[in-house]
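re: that chain from earlier
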Amino acid sequence: MRDRGVTGTTDWVRYEVQATIPDGTEWVYYGALLAGSGTAWFDSFHVEDLDAAELPDPSEEARAYLQRALNIIERFALRRDEVDWSRIQDEALAQARGAADAAAVHTVLRNTLRTLGDRHSVLLAPPEARAWEAGADPAGRPEPMGVMLSRRVAYLEVPRFSGDVAEQVTAYADALQNLIRTQAEAGACGWVVDLRGNSGGNMWPMLAGLGPLFGDGELGGFRGADGEQAAWWYRGGATGVAERTAARVSNEPFILPTLPPVAVLVGPTTASSGEAVALALTGRDNAASFGAPTAGLTTGNQLFVLSDGALLWLTTSVFVDRDGRAYGGPVQPDHEVIPTAASQRGADPVRDSALTWLKRSCL
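^ sequence. v structure.
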């Protein structure tokens, strides 16, 4: 029902959901979810097992839509050479039996993406795609936060950022860079950059905002399955990849007189773009990471727009750091910090370890 949620006040209405269950499935959970205020009534849940072989072939519209999407995946997917495409094609066509239109194929494509095993590719149906393009963030849009931990050490919390709306991208980058400016003017010598809650999204406003902590130059890059690389960079308040500028601050960029020591906090919920920022920061001199291994989504996604407006974010590359080391899995911290019982009661041993390391340079 993600593509056709029920809203408003109505009399009893029957709704049906048809789902494709891949071979090997052990459990299927179903139920109802009420998001927001109001009251929802449910009655007469019923599950019917349909044999795909008894369903008609997909319509010409559904079949063509599926084939176009499969062609994109086969051509561009990072793991395209690691899967059996003949089997994937056969399974997708079998799962699409009974599909009348493009919308009925979305579940089939999501199953296909899971088969790739990259854990990062995703399909947004048209309603979700429109919300993303409009800059909506269902979970709320967190903002960067900064405080002084001591007279000489600053703390920056860099949260996830979702979307690609230019005004929102610039506002996020400005907020980060303004925090760094304020902290530097307050006497900060070193920075703690907390990425533990950064689950990813759009990396470019993060890199643009943190620019003063990088300085101008290359920060890392993407490497495709064919070995081709495209470098990330920061220059004069702007950031991007290869020849493309992806984000910039709106005002004159802030420049620190020298690159300060930086301690980067990471953990299992540091993912995707959060991991990219961690690699960019720790790849420079006088920087180190603290915490636990990251989520392991150190891969780049390329956007493809399908004919019905759905957005296919397909994993097409892995991250590489400034030294050319390729990832594709978790980033291991320079200093692994094991949580203790005390940390569950409010202490923060990861931040404390970073602070101890920084104070050696910022007495």
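The chain has a mean pLDDT of 93.
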